[in-house]
Every structure is written in structure tokens, then in C-alpha cells.
């Protein structure tokens, strides 16, 4: 009985760990998608205004 209880606890904690991993993966995917959208928008924005891009390069120098 005691061994079964220990096995149950181990299995339950392993399941919880897998659920946490799955959750973090989905959160990361969501964050990555949002970041990609921001980056793509920035590239499009700078593509429309090349003078701003040149201005940014001058400031960095």
C-alpha cells in the first residue's frame, strides 16, 4: 500500500511537471508570435521611411 502511494505521488508530480512544461511552451510561442509581429511591423515601417533609418544610423555613430 505504501509503495503504491509513493508511486502515485511520483506519477502525479511527473504529470504536473509535464503540464507546467506544456504551459511554458505555449506561453513562449505566444510571446514569440507577438515579437515577430512587432519586428515585422518595424521593418515595414522603416522600409517606408528610409530617411528615419539613416537618421538612426547617424545617431549610433
Word description of this protein:
- By secondary structure, the protein is mainly alpha-helical.
- It has one domain.
- Helices cover 95% and strands 0% of the residues.
- The protein is built from 2 helices and no strands.
- The chain is rod-shaped and about 75 Å long.
- The model has no long low-confidence stretch (mean pLDDT 81).
Secondary-structure blueprint:
Blueprint: H1 2-48, H2 50-60
Total of domains: 1
**Gyration radius, in Å:** 24 Å
Specify the helix fraction band.
over 70%
- Mean pLDDT score: 81
Structural descriptors:
95% helix, 61 residues
Kindly summarize this structure in a few lines.
95% of the residues lie in helices and 0% in strands.
